[in-house]
Amino acid sequence: xxxxxxxxxxxxxxxxxxxxxxxxxxxxPASSIVDTKKNCSRRHxxxxxxxxxxxxxxxxxxxxxxxxxxxxxxxxHCLSNIAEQAHHHSFLGEETSTSGxxxxxxxxxxxxxxxxxxxxxxxPYISISMAFAHKLRPLVGIVYNPFTQHLYHAIHGHGAxxxxxxxxxxxxxxxxxxxxxxxxxxxxxxxxKLPLKSPAPKLEGLTKALVAVEWGNERSGNNxxxxxxxxxxxxxxxxxxGGMVHSLRSLGSAALNCCAVARGDLDTYWEGGCWAWDVAxxxxxxxxxxxxxxxxxxxxxxxxxxxxxxxxVRGAEGKEGQExxxxxxxxxxxGNLIYEG
Length: 341
Hints:
This protein is of the alpha+beta class. It is built from 11 helices and 12 strands. It has a 7-stranded mixed sheet with strand order 1-2-3-4-5-6-7, with helices on both faces. A 5-stranded mixed sheet has the order 9-8-10-12-11, with helices on both faces. Helix 9 packs parallel to helix 10. It starts with 5 loop residues before the first helix and ends in a 10-residue tail after the last helix. Mean pLDDT is about 80; it is low at about 30-35 and about 40-75.
């Protein structure tokens, strides 16, 4: 079997993300059609999907006209089939997966809108998350926030980058991944290698750390108790055994949280309950920026991409403090996160 051309896949997803972003910024979100971020095809069944149309249309917009007469789920399947035919690869996404389990086959992993609740509330912390994985390892990652026009992109072994307008408030002509960009387009955008600070400062423990966490949609049971007790453990005063972290943040997009760790804005990000399509692209960006992804439970040094619990730690020069940060964080956990596939 011929090995996938990662640069070609990167360029394909890069261009697709920009087109999809234009559709999102022109959309009119309605809270009545928003899914609660549980796996749609599992919860609703394939026959009666309750899926917001904007999430389906953002994939492969060039093909929308030829399939727009179909139902939302049929439309999504048409678009995913186009992806499979174009690149002969599998597809894993929120609206198409009944298990969320990644196989070893070459696979596109896509979440058209990561941060749906933010999107509905007009809070501009949302992203299009697109990844490519092979042999269970994410190798290409594209994360694009169309509202800030920040596009994070990475290829395994080639570093992670942020492409953004040179003037933050401007709306310059769109770049593309290829070499046909005009001089005006090239000058309007800046590509910056991640992390933003070089060399990346060492990690100095939880008391100096800005930590991202997410509440999730489960508000009772074991995982809820584990999360809330762990939040208190992380934030609590050291006199009562707390981690006394500098502060906690809950921002609402797993993909962008990963990218914030890759940038160096966040020191760590702890997550439980999301899916492979939420984290796969950000995973590549983090690792290529020198960061590390481990499991969300103590001792999980080699997590699966579809493991649904993660601890993400930023890079540091010479990896200084990285492993100690992971171990210190794990010691503050109050229980284990347990999720089905």
